[in-house]
Structures are given as C-alpha cells and as structure tokens.
C-alpha cells in the first residue's frame, strides 16, 4: 500500500521529534497547537496521533477528537497521553489509547496493522450498499429486497471493520427492548448465502461474534489496460490548463491544438469521478480517496469498473487517460504526450 500519512498533534517538541524520526514507514506531519492542525484537517490523512494536554490552543484533546470526527468519521485516532481518564471519556471503536511512554516500534506496528486492515476492509466492501429506507441490499451484480433485520446486521458489520461484533450487540440493534435469542445465527446463515458470489465473506468466531472481511484469495484486478503506459511518457494533468470539465452539461473538453478542441460526452457519475481525479492534490489516488468528495447516493456500486469504462472512452476521444499504479492500487489522471 501507499505510504501511511499521519497528522500528529502534541505541544511537546521532544515527542514531535520522536514520532517524526522513529515511526518507520510512516510519513508524519507535526502540529504543536490545535488551531493550526484543524486548518489542515481536510487533507487526505490515514490517521491521527493526538495528545490530551495541548498548551496554547484553548482546546483539550477530547474536544479536538470531536472536531476530527466531524470530518473524518472512518479514520483511526491514536490517543497518546498520561491521562487515562481522557480515553475513558471517548467511546469510539476507531480510537486507540496508548500511554505517553509507549515504545515507538509498538506504536508503529499498531498504526500499520490498523491502517492496513482499514484499507482492506474498505476495498472489500466496495460494491456493497445497504439501503435502510427501502430495506434492500445492493451488491456488485444485483440488488436484493430483504427483511429489515438483515439490513441492520449487514450495515453494522460494514461500519465496524476492525473487530467481530457479538450477538448481543447485534440483537440490541435489531430490537433494543427485546433482544431475540438465536435470531443472529439465522441471519448469519442467510447473509452468508447472499454474499457467496461477492468479494467478501461473513465469518463467525465462537465467543466473539460476526465479522465481515475481504476473501483471503487474491482477487483479479479488473483494471488491466492492454497497453501498459510508462509513467515517464505521461505528464500529470494537474499541470495543464487546456483541459476543461463542464459539470453543468457533463462534457470534457481537451485542447488538441490551437484551433482544435475535442469534446467527450460523459455520464454524471463519469464526470464526478473525473472531477475528483482532476482536483486531487497529488498525482495518484486510492479508490477511497476518489470516492470521498462524491455524494454517497451518487457513488457507483463498482467504482473500479466504472473507471475502466471511463478510461476506454477517454483514450479514444480525448488527450488524457487514467493510469493505474498496480503496485499501490492507485489511479492518476495524465495527459498523453504527442496528443
């Protein structure tokens, strides 16, 4: 996977230097006060390291934690403080408490384990969407109308990518006043059948409960262009001013020569995917990063497949292409030289 990028908020210089130099394989951006950190929250971080006492900011760690969660609901936060009461205030499955003197190697290993598992879980659940209003499950190949308890259980599993959820918690989600003994086992068997053709598997671990995770076998990448483009023959579209995306009419315009402009008619979702790729602050993006600015109700069920289809259209009708970095499973928008 790509290099892990963390925001670190701590008012003590010695700890900022420690995290910057001792966390192997992790890129760290340090902030000594909460105000400067909060100004940079919109960046595409993979997680956060947060201290409780942050002098000069007027905010405590739990307040900063709440502000981070408003923007990044799905990213892990690592609370590092001598104040154990700090951790007890926060009930969040994606928040991890460690003491101030935690060993750097232990911290580094935990961060990598959590972030990598998070990435796997997110990519595993692409193409699975639960419509709680219509009581239906939308999968990569089909949509299924089911009873509400099935939607509730699957939705809870998708929202909790780190650990199995025990039967009692799921039962309470179904009926908070009257948890039904044994109902989860039946739902487990039915959901297992529903998901049998998908890229995920539903597991039951005795004493722990249910967990949804990506299948262990390596899946075939659906994005494999016949012609392998050499990145050295491409230039990032970010540096170009001769590409225009008309979001009102869903039309891409690329300037081929001084008096020749090519136009490509797009579907709305294609325009949204292209807009996300064009506005990225870096050349390559993961699927998660591409989808983030797109409203949830407009996101495609199988985004990788839609990018493949969009790329075919772009290669024939425009001067730009989508390049796939198979090593990091990231996508970038580039202009072909000579076009």
Describe the structure.
- By secondary structure, the protein is α/β, with parallel strands linked by helices.
- It has 3 domains: 4-122, Response regulator (Rossmann fold); 129-214, Arc Repressor Mutant, subunit A, CATH 1.10.10; 231-336, Orthogonal Bundle (Arc Repressor Mutant, subunit A).
- It contains 11 helices and 17 strands.
- It has helices spanning 13-22, 34-38, 61-71, 84-89, 104-124, 148-159, 167-174, 183-194, 268-278, 287-291, 303-317; strands spanning 4-9, 26-31, 47-50, 77-80, 95-98, 129-131, 136-138, 143-145, 200-205, 209-214, 234-236, 243-246, 251-257, 260-265, 284-285, 320-325, 330-336.
- The strands form 5 sheets. The chain has a 5-stranded parallel beta sheet with strand order 2-1-3-4-5, sandwiched between helices. Strands 11, 15, 16 and 17 form a 4-stranded antiparallel beta sheet that branches. Strands 6-7-8 form a 3-stranded antiparallel beta sheet, with helices on one face.
- α6 (148-159) packs across α8.
- The longest helix is centred in the middle third of the chain and has 21 residues, at 104-124.
- The chain is globular.
């Amino acid at each position: 996977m790509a290099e892990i990028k963390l925001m670190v908020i701590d008012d003590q210089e010695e700890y900022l230097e420690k995290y910057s130099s001792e966390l192997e394989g992790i890129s760290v951006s340090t902030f000594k006060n909460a105000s400067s950190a909060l100004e940079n929250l919109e960046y595409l971080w993979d997680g956060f390291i947060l201290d409780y006492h942050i002098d000069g900011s007027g905010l405590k760690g739990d307040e900063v934690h709440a502000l981070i969660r408003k923007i990044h609901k799905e990213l892990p936060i690592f609370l590092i403080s001598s104040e154990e009461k700090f951790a007890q205030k926060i009930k969040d499955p994606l928040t991890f408490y460690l003491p101030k003197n935690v060993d750097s190697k232990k911290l580094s290993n935990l961060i990598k384990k959590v972030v990598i598992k998070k990435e796997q879980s997110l990519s595993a659940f692409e193409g699975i969407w639960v419509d709680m209003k219509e009581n239906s499950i939308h999968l990569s190949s089909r949509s299924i109308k089911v009873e509400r308890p099935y939607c509730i259980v699957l939705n809870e599993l998708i929202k909790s990518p780190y650990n199995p959820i025990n039967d009692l918690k799921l039962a309470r989600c179904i009926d908070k006043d009257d948890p039904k003994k044994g109902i989860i086992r039946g739902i487990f068997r039915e959901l297992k059948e529903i998901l049998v053709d998908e890229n995920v598997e539903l597991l039951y671990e005795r004493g722990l409960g249910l967990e949804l995770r990506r299948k262990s076998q390596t899946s075939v990448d659906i994005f494999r262009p016949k012609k392998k483009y050499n990145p050295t023959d491409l230039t990032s579209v970010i540096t170009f001013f001769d590409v225009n995306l008309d979001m009102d009419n869903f039309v891409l315009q690329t300037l081929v020569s001084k008096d020749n402009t090519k136009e490509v008619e797009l579907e709305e979702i294609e325009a949204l995917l292209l807009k996300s790729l064009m506005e990225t602050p870096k050349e390559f993006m993961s699927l998660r990063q591409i989808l983030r600015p797109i409203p949830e109700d407009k996101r495609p069920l199988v985004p990788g497949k839609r990018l493949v289809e969009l790329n075919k259209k772009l290669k024939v009708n425009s001067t730009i292409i989508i390049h796939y970095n198979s090593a990091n499973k990231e996508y970038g928008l580039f202009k072909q030289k000579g076009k």
